[in-house]
Amino acid sequence: MKKKDSSTVKAEAQHLIKIYDYLTEESFLPVYFLFGADTFALEKAVDDVIKAIEPFVASDFDKEVLRLDKKQEIGMVISSASTYPFGDGKKLIVIKSFENVADKKILNEYISNPSPFTVLVITHNDKISSLASDPYKTMALEGWMFEARELKGVELINWVIREAKIKKTSISNDDAAALIEIVGEDKNLLEQELIKFYNYLGSDKEITFDLIKSLASNTREFTIFNLLDAMGVGNKEKALQIGYNLLHNGTHILMMLSTLNKYFITIVHSKELMKKDLQPREAALKADVSEYFYKSCLKANYFRSEQKVNRAIRALLSADLSVKTTNLDQKTIFTLLVAEILGN
């Protein structure tokens, strides 16, 4: 990898998920520095790096994994990274908990000229406030630093889809979003659920919403689907209760607006599809939503009136504008939205 001009390029870490772009023999990096507060993600990623490198390590003497205690010296370990391997393959050195290193500048000399036959993997179980100085700056500019930032929205959905594939199953975008809604955003819990689905289904099977409903452990008092159900019958009080709970537990109002917008557009679409006498699964495919989501829209009797649907869509546009252009808090915007959709 060509070194970037440090005088013109800001030192930035890649997202941890990008590390999987560098786990083939042709793309191996000399140094992988993984950091962030998400220790679950760090441990999993470093295990995946080790699995990718191990087949190219010819001798057991060429693999060393060290978990550091507080204020530990690593000079001998770094020195060994520069020595030739015992076998004909690569040398793999893993240093965990780099935050406990007494003198972090010990890395400076090595990263300026890393060994071509060694892969050095380092984890740092915390955020790093600044990448402006070495050893971090050089590693960031080289593209060797990967940060375990919290995944939200589309990034988390893509993570679930990728993890399902790793576990020899598949899941659609909509159903991955539904799983997150039901289980929550803790990746450890999500992975446990994906393992549960694999054990139930076996290899090369699809995780459907019906399976998620029957097997997933619901960790939330309410989900966005409860909000849709309350909206669909015109229950203003219940919609407010559920919405406030979702906001309190970390669901951003923009995510709620996006789902509600999709809900009302599907309701409009469903009126046309119903005229074609299609089965729910076939109709859901044409509407580009999950079958469960489509059936939820069919139950929205309160919005069988075109006037009410149009009013709801206008209210969503107004709420979206308020989020992006005003200082109103999310709870106030949601309260006004429900009042406009379901009446004062």
Structure, described:
- With 344 residues, the chain is α/β, with parallel strands linked by helices.
- 51% of the residues lie in helices and 10% in strands.
- The protein has helices at residues 39-53, 75-81, 107-112, 136-142, 153-166, 173-183, 187-201, 209-215, 224-232, 236-248, 253-274, 280-287, 291-298, 306-325, 330-342, and strands at 14-15, 31-35, 63-67, 91-96, 118-124, 145-147, 169-171, 205-207.
- Strands 1-6-2-5-4-3 form a six-stranded parallel beta sheet. It has a two-stranded parallel sheet with strand order 7-8.
- The chain is elongated, with a radius of gyration of 25 Å.
Summed up:
The protein is built from 15 helices and eight strands. With 344 residues, it is α/β, with parallel strands linked by helices.
Task: Write a concise keyword list for the protein shown above.
344 residues, alpha/beta, six-stranded parallel β-sheet, two-stranded parallel ribbon, 15 helices, 51% helix, elongated
- Cα-atom radius of gyration: 25 Å
- What structural class do the secondary elements suggest? alpha/beta
The helix content is 40-55%
Query: What kind of sheet is the major sheet?
Result: 6 strands, parallel
Q: How far apart are the first and last residues' alpha carbons, in Å? A: 61 Å
Mean pLDDT: 87
C-alpha geometry: elongated
Q: Please mark out the parts with pLDDT under 50 across 5 or more consecutive residues, or reply none.
A: none
Helix count, DSSP H or I runs of 4 or more residues: 15
Q: Strand fraction band?
A: 5-15%
The H/E string reads: EEHEHEHEHEHEHHEHHHHHHHH
Could you give the count of β-strands?
Answer: 8
Going across the biggest sheet, name each strand in turn: 1-6-2-5-4-3
